[in-house]
Structures are given as structure tokens and as C-alpha cells.
Write a structure and sequence with these properties.
Number of helices: 17
Mean pLDDT: 82
Order of helices and strands: HHHHHHHHHHHHHHHHH
Largest sheet: none
Low-confidence stretches: 183-189, 386-407
Radius of gyration: 21 Å
Shape: globular
Length: 408
């Protein structure tokens, strides 16, 4: 089963590289297509917004498709769209291809997660999901710096790298994923849940609060990340090699943050991780106008911020899933939509901040947004209480020690 999971992870690696590598090549795109850097940054906004809006719609429309067909269709659309991005002669056409790529990504990632859980026994599903989602994390450590370095003279080469990754995943899955368990049966009369049904959990105020926290945190994080080349230009001097080094450090720190975040949640609880991570990122954004003046400072920022940010990113879906475990897949999909909406809004927020505050001081807006996310956590979650005296005779009325450590 392991090779199948790695093939699925290769697909998420391609998607993750595509969605995040733009931060490293915005300057080249702006010069080539004769648009400003903030305008070029709207490609990230368009991709993320299209992903967030299309994911639930496409899930409803294709609910009865065989999963193998879904995977191959999604990768075909994604790969073809990136080839069109590499060939786009104008900025408006490039934007259109980013929407098409987002459609493929929005169809692929949830399907890959569902397939991963069907390939392994129930007791190994967590590790299977970690393997597939690990492709996204590894994309920040390897795909983004590699794409930034390859595209240091021509951003279109970066898009061809994504095409190659998508084509490799497509070919591998076409050859090796012949039969998938758990796929919808042909001719099944069961009616798949519609879009309205999928959005029913939003009637729960706890779910709304949790998704709002996800949105606010990724809004703050991406309003800086998308324009990181602008924020640290004094340190890099505009050199692609130095920028690639910073992006590599951020990628490695992202992997570390994801790994540490999972263990921190188990040990200290969701609430503590979210509050601590939000506070650290807020301080990092506040310090960036000074850290971004030198390479040591930029590298320190690249080390600290992703560790804190990805720790929070692990805690956010954990919080949602714990609200209603039987509906965890649906709740996690809503978390993904909120995440990508935050990415989309982050592009616009970062652009507006640059226009208002300038290239040096725009991260201060992210500081305020991170503090707002932290305030949302404070007001919408409860401090876990550990009973002074255990009551083993009445387990139904109390919480286990593990549950006490995982605050909603």
C-alpha cells in the first residue's frame, strides 16, 4: 500500500508547489507581463479563492464518480492548466489559467485524502493521511525553493516544473491505481449529499468560530508570505540565490512546525498551541520590518514563523474535527475552504498594506490580524479543566485525561 500512498502524496506535492511557489517569482512575472508586484500577487488570491469556492461545489457534482476517475481527471485538468500558465502571453490569460489549475487542485486533494483512508486498515488511517498531506508540507521545504531557483531567470520554467510533477503523478496513478476500494458502486441508487447538506454544520456557532479562526490566521500569515520577497528585499538585495535560501529555510521550518505541532497538540492541547503559535507569529510580523534588513534577521524570521504557523495549522483542523467526530471529514473540508479563503484574502490584504504602509512596514497589518485571530481563540474556546479527584464510577459525566487536554 505504501507506493500507492506515495503516489497520492506526489500529487499533493505538485499542488502544494503550485499554490505556494508564486511568492518566489512574483518579481519576474511583474516585469515580464508589465504589471506591478501587488497586481501579480493577485494570482495567488485568484487561485486560493477559486479553490475555496469550487471545492464544495465540485465535491457535490462528482460525488458518484469512481475515485480513480476523479483522481485522473483532476490531475489532467491541473497539469494542463499549468502548461497553459507557462504559455500565457498576457496577465489576464494567466489569471484564467490559475482558476483552471485551482479547479483541478480542489478536485484532487479531498479525493486523495479519501482514497488514502480506503487503502489502509482503520488503525492506520491517521498515518495514511499524514503521508498524503505530507506532500503539501514537503512542497514548502523542497518544491518552493526548487521552483524559485529554477525560475530565477524565467518564471515560466517554474510552471514547467509543476507540469512535470503533475504529469509524473498522473502517469504513476494511471499505471498503479487500477482498483480502489471504497469507490462508489456503478449504478448505485444512493443519493450523494448536496451542497446544502455539506454546509449544514455552519449552523453550529462553534464551527463558525473555528472556521473564522482559520480564516483570520491564514489571512494574516499569507498577507506577508505572498510578498516575502518584498519584505526582505533589503536583506537579499533582490538576488534570487539569497531569496531561494530564505525560502528553503522557511520550507524546512514548515516541516518541523508540522511535526512539532502534532505532538504539541497531543501534549498541551489545541487551545494552548493556537494561542502560543498566534502570539509568536504576531511578534515575528511585528519584528519583520527590522529583521528584513539583514540576511541573519531574514533567516531568523524564516526559521521562527513557519514553526509557529504550521503548529497552528495542525491545531485548527484538530479543533474542528473534535466538535463532531462522526462528521470530521466534512468539517475538515470546511477548514480547508476557510484556509484557502484566507490565502485569497491575504493576497489582497498584503497588496493594500503595501500601498498604504510601504514595502517596509506592511507586515504590521499582519500583526494586527494575528492578534485578532488570537483574540478569537481566547473568546471562543474554553480552558481545559482537570478534575482534582477522578471519578471512575461515573465516566459518562467526565472527560478522559486526553479529552481534557484537547480543548474545543
Amino acid at each position: 500500500m505504501r507506493p500507492r500512498l506515495l503516489l497520492l502524496a506526489l500529487g499533493t506535492f505538485a499542488v502544494g508547489t503550485d499554490s505556494m511557489v508564486m511568492a518566489g517569482i512574483l518579481g519576474l512575472i511583474s516585469r515580464d507581463l508589465d504589471v506591478s508586484v501587488p497586481t501579480a500577487g493577485q494570482m495567488v488570491t485568484v487561485f486560493a479563492l477559486a479553490y475555496a469556492l469550487l471545492a464544495p461545489v465540485l465535491a457535490s457534482l462528482t460525488a458518484r464518480w469512481p475515485r480513480r476517475q476523479l483522481l485522473l481527471t483532476a490531475l489532467t485538468v491541473f497539469t494542463a492548466a499549468n502548461a497553459l500558465s507557462a504559455l500565457a502571453p498576457t496577465y489576464p490569460l494567466l489569471l484564467a489559467t490559475r482558476i483552471l489549475a485551482a479547479a483541478g487542485a480542489a478536485l484532487y486533494t479531498p479525493t486523495a485524502n479519501a482514497v488514502a483512508t480506503s487503502l489502509v486498515p482503520p488503525e492506520r488511517r491517521g498515518r495514511a493521511l499524514a503521508t498524503v498531506l505530507g506532500g503539501m508540507t514537503v512542497a514548502t521545504a523542497l518544491g518552493v525553493p526548487l521552483g524559485t531557483w529554477i525560475g530565477r531567470t524565467d518564471w515560466r520554467l517554474t510552471m514547467w516544473l509543476v507540469v512535470a510533477l503533475g504529469a509524473a503523478a498522473l502517469a504513476g496513478q494511471a499505471l498503479l491505481l487500477r482498483e480502489l476500494p471504497g469507490a462508489p458502486a456503478a449504478g448505485s441508487s444512493a443519493t450523494p449529499p448536496g451542497l446544502r447538506k455539506r454546509l449544514t454544520p455552519l449552523r453550529d456557532r462553534r464551527v463558525v468560530a473555528a472556521t473564522a479562526t482559520t480564516f483570520l490566521f491564514f489571512l494574516s500569515f499569507n498577507s506577508v508570505y505572498i510578498y516575502i520577497a518584498t519584505a526582505i528585499r533589503p536583506a537579499t538585495g533582490g538576488e534570487a540565490g539569497r531569496l531561494s535560501l530564505v525560502m528553503l529555510m522557511m520550507g524546512i521550518a514548515s516541516v518541523a512546525g508540522s511535526w512539532l505541532g502534532g505532538r504539541a497538540v497531543d501534549h498541551w492541547g489545541v487551545r494552548s498551541v493556537m494561542l502560543t503559535g498566534s502570539a509568536v507569529t504576531a511578534l515575528a510580523f511585528l519584528a519583520l520590518p527590522w529583521l528584513g534588513r539583514t540576511m541573519p534577521g531574514a533567516l531568523l524570521y524564516a526559521l521562527v514563523t513557519p514553526v509557529a504557523g504550521w503548529s497552528v495549522a495542525v491545531a485548527l483542523p484538530h479543533r474542528l474535527a473534535s466538535l463532531d467526530p462522526p462528521n470530521a471529514p466534512l468539517l475538515i473540508s470546511l477548514n480547508s475552504s476557510a484556509l484557502y479563503l484566507g490565502m485569497a484574502a491575504g493576497g489582497g490584504a498584503g497588496s493594500a498594506s503595501i500601498a498604504l504602509l510601504g514595502d517596509r512596514w506592511f507586515p504590521l497589518t499582519a500583526t494586527l490580524l494575528a492578534l485578532l485571530a488570537m483574540a478569537t481563540v481566547l473568546t471562543t474556546t474554553r480552558t481545559p479543566r482537570t478534575p482534582a479527584t477522578p471519578a471512575p464510577s461515573t465516566p459518562a459525566r467526565g472527560k478522559t485525561a486526553a479529552e481534557s487536554g484537547r480543548s474545543r
